[in-house]
Amino acid sequence: MSDEKLLPHRQAIDAIDGEILQLLNRRAAHARAIGELKGTGAVYRPEREAQVLRRIQDLNAGPLPDEAVARLFREVMSECLAVERPLTIAYLGPQGTFTQQAAVKHFGHAAHTVACATVDESLRLVEARQADYAVAPVENSTEGSVGRTLDLLVSTPLKICGEVVLRIHHHLLRQNNDLNGITVVYAHAQALAQCHYWLGKNLSDSVRRVAVSSNAEAARLAAEQPDAAAVAGQTAAEIYALHKLAENIEDEPDNTTRFLVLGHQHTAPSGRDKTSLVVSAPNRAGMLNRLVEPFTRAGISMSKFESRPSRNGLWEYLFFVDIEGHGDDAAVRQALDGLRERAAFVKVAGSYPAAVI
Ligand SMILES: O=C(O)C(=O)C[C@]1(C(=O)O)C=C[C@@H](O)C=C1
């Protein structure tokens, strides 16, 4: 096939690219005007972003898949927002963690990300207004809740303003492309657990499995030690220039982590929202039923109901509850009034759009 046949298509693509470029800059000019009208208010509007992405997916007639167009528009909005004012996002580092990946998935590549040593520190940075938002892992489909994040939700003055759902793929990474001669595998304890079966089947028993503070730290160590491998994700592989000896080695095919986005603002309804609550109640027979009843009566479904020991009293529990709907919805407001009559403590940790991509 000669390239001559490609020519008319390439000429068409050049013309279309020119139009796309003009349209993108026209879009950015509107975003800049919106930014000026917002003045000192929050430039990031989670509800509007969710609506834009949902609308684009509804409009999409292909051949690009819905997920691909959503990803492209995610980046377009990220750049438009940066024209208004660039955002700083605090995340659990070091560079290359899944939390950083979640931050980029949610805010796009124009956002500036700041690595923090702990989830506590990432929230503190936002509380002190040294960063605009924090992204924190809250639960994994294989390993369950991240207790520290739940504990922090109880006391932080920040509001949840978004959620990010990330498929977690683990790879076996090494300096060179050889499965032989590995004496140690580094990974975060959760990643070791999520790949337990694969590692047992594919590596000899003499290979030591060493838990380290994060997957990115595991990749960093593997980049320094020729006889070491790491279990980590794509971003860590790229940052530390490691070879992928094996891809997608997680035992559970749907291994997914959910992250929360926390900031100072109240988020308006987007049309498809969730509300997260922290509830405590006296430890009495029938109490669980009494707590759930106001939601059942209002026809509101729950996507999470989890208990955790309260740090104040022995055998006292806090309940972490996610419901469908927004705190401004009449039905949710009524259910919350009913809940407040029954519970000793109710905190609305935030209402936010359900994840779109
Ligand atoms: O609609 C707005 O408020 C905008 O600032 C525009 C825009 C966009 O690019 O569409 C950018 C940032 C906001 O988070 C939401 C949407």
From TrEMBL:
Keywords: Amino-acid biosynthesis, Aromatic amino acid biosynthesis, Cytoplasm, Isomerase, Lyase, Multifunctional enzyme, Phenylalanine biosynthesis. Residues 1-88 form the Chorismate mutase domain. It is found in: Cytoplasm. Its main location: cytoplasm. GO terms for molecular function: chorismate mutase activity; prephenate dehydratase activity. InterPro entries: ACT-like_dom_sf (IPR045865), ACT_dom (IPR002912), Chor_mutase/pphenate_deHydtase (IPR008242), Chorismate_II_sf (IPR036263), CM_dom_sf (IPR036979), CM_II_prokaryot (IPR002701), G/b/e-P-prot_chorismate_mutase (IPR010957), Preph_deHydtase (IPR001086). Gene3D superfamilies: 3.30.70.260, Chorismate mutase, Periplasmic binding protein-like II. It catalyses: prephenate + H(+) = 3-phenylpyruvate + CO2 + H2O; chorismate = prephenate. PROSITE patterns: ACT (PS51671), CHORISMATE_MUT_2 (PS51168), PREPHENATE_DEHYDR_1 (PS00857), PREPHENATE_DEHYDR_2 (PS00858), PREPHENATE_DEHYDR_3 (PS51171). The record marks T257 as: Essential for prephenate dehydratase activity. Residues 88-264 form the Prephenate dehydratase domain. It comes from the Bacteria. PANTHER family: PREPHENATE DEHYDRATASE P PROTEIN, PREPHENATE DEHYDRATASE-RELATED. NCBIfam families: CM_P2, PRK11898.1. This is Bifunctional chorismate mutase/prephenate dehydratase. It comes from Conchiformibius kuhniae. The lineage of its organism: Bacteria, Pseudomonadati, Pseudomonadota, Betaproteobacteria, Neisseriales.
